[in-house]
Amino acid sequence: MKIGIIGGTGREGAGLALRWGASGEEVIIGSRDAGRAVETAKRLNRLVSVAAIHGALNQQAAIEADVAVLTVPYAAHVAVLVEIKKALRGKLLIDTTVPFDPKTHEWLPSIHYNSALEEAQEVLGSGVRVVAAFQNIGFHLLKDFRRVIDCDVLVCGDDADARRLACLLAEKAGLRGVDVGSSRHAGTVERLTPLLMDLKRCYNTRAAGIRITGLPEHTP
């Protein structure tokens, strides 16, 4: 499976690329700057001692990918979606976006949408399956790709098969994916991120995360 990480030179994208590359998946890191994407891919390949990670422009990464993962700041959310819309037709997009200001940690409410997921689905249309996932995993944990992370990945969206695939990719990244249902839960999942960031500051830890208890270790 080819995984295209749109905006993959950032901290979260690079962390996911490391984990998927180490698990044997082929990863294409996308960026607005092809040179930066190539250099990031080379650096990550050295860390995992494989050559499974490649760099390209965002558009090319979306074209080549079987599954795309969006890891851009919310300020670039719509612009990047419009740019890659045609390339994503018939594919799955996993949107990790959280609508908040990374400097102030303030929520950025939209008058039109309850979540970044709903915004992405509206922009891309019904020809692209969109799920939300990976918003609540800190990049400090992801980049240590040999570390077992005590945190679940909450996956939501309106296509059950798409949610199952996203859960499988979470497992390949060394995490447990939990299917939490339809897109109506996306706003709740996204809003957990600023809460977790406040907890990390309060308790001086980088490891705060979400864990759903009472479930089997491997959910369906």
Overview of this protein structure:
- The chain is 40% helix and 18% strand.
- With 220 residues, it is of the alpha/beta class.
- The protein has a single domain (2-203), classed as Rossmann fold (3-Layer(aba) Sandwich), CATH 3.40.50.720.
- Helix 1 (11-22) packs across helix 2 and helix 4 (77-84) runs parallel beside helix 5.
Give the key terms:
40% helix, alpha/beta, Rossmann fold, single chain
Give the SSE map.
Blueprint: E1 2-6, H1 11-22, E2 26-31, H2 34-48, E3 53-57, H3 58-64, E4 67-70, H4 77-84, E5 92-95, H5 116-124, E6 129-132, H6 139-143, E7 152-157, H7 160-172, E8 176-181, H8 186-203
Parallel strand pairs: 1-2, 1-4, 2-3, 4-5, 5-6, 7-8
Antiparallel strand pairs: 6-7
Helix pairs in contact: 1-2, 4-5
What is the strand tally?
8
Question: What class do helices, strands and sheet pairing give?
Answer: alpha/beta
Q: What is the CATH superfamily?
A: NAD(P)-binding Rossmann-like Domain
Summed over residues and divided by their number, the pLDDT gives a mean of 92
Strand order of the largest sheet: 3-2-1-4-5-6-7-8
In the CATH hierarchy, what is the architecture at level 2?
Answer: 3-Layer(aba) Sandwich
User: How many domains in all?
Assistant: 1
| Percentage of residues in helical conformation | 25-40%
Overview in brief:
With 220 residues, the chain is α/β, with parallel strands linked by helices.
